[in-house]
Amino acid sequence: MSATIYTTRSIHGHMSRKKVINSPEAPAAVGPYSHAVLAGNLLYVSGQLPIDPSTGEFVHDCIKAQTEMVLNNLGAVLATAGLGMEDVVKTTVYLKDMFHFDDMNEVYAKFFTQDPPARAAFQVARLPKDALVEIEAVALAK
């Protein structure tokens, strides 16, 4: 696991900790952000893009393939933190076009087969690198 622990002082003068998680199994971030941050017992996972970590390239221009890659990347970040998809309590799905909603759902359902997390889904004007889908998550740490 690639992680850095930072200690910060909260506004109430109490010491708090955050742990930055960067997974060697997920594609590198496309900007100045971490794959995830563990704060207390919550893991905040940055939006994952449909980039194949072995090539650094986007997968096919197909919503199903992109959703699968995004969720595989999300799973890799979770695994680096010692968690799994079953620990996810909330996701936010960003779609280039709501026309893709049903196809995204078909793939998404295969990754969250039991007790799926709470979720919001939005159509957005544009995603980084012109992706068709991006998904971020919050997971409950063990």
Task: Itemize the secondary structure elements and their pairings.
Blueprint: E1 2-9, E2 15-22, E3 36-39, E4 42-48, E5 51-52, E6 57-58, H1 63-80, E7 88-95, H2 101-111, E8 118-123, E9 133-140
Helix pairs in contact: 1-2
- State the CATH architecture: 2-Layer Sandwich
CATH topology: 60s Ribosomal Protein L30, Chain: A
Integer average pLDDT: 91
Number of domains: 1
Give the radius of gyration: 15 Å
Q: Write down how many β-strands occur, each being a DSSP E stretch of 2 or more residues.
A: 9
The strands making up the biggest β-sheet line up spatially as 1-2-3-4-9-7-8
At the first level of CATH, the class is: Alpha Beta
Largest sheet, strands/sense/barrel: 7 strands, mixed
Low-confidence stretches: 5-11
In which range does the helix fraction lie?
10-25%
- Please identify the structural class as seen in this structure: alpha+beta
The CATH superfamily title:
RutC-like
Distance between the termini: 16 Å
Strand content: 35-45%
- How many helices? The count is 2
From the spread of the alpha carbons, the general shape counts as globular
Succession of helices and strands: EEEEEEHEHEE
Describe what this molecule looks like in 3D.
This protein is α+β, with helices and mostly antiparallel strands and 142 residues long. The protein has helices at 63-80, 101-111; strands at residues 2-9, 15-22, 36-39, 42-48, 51-52, 57-58, 88-95, 118-123, 133-140. The strands form two sheets. A seven-stranded mixed sheet has the order 1-2-3-4-9-7-8, with helices on one face. A two-stranded antiparallel sheet has the order 5-6. A hairpin with a 2-residue loop joins β3 (36-39) and β4 (42-48). α1 packs parallel to α2. The longest helix has 18 residues, at 63-80. Mean pLDDT is 91; it is low at 5-11.
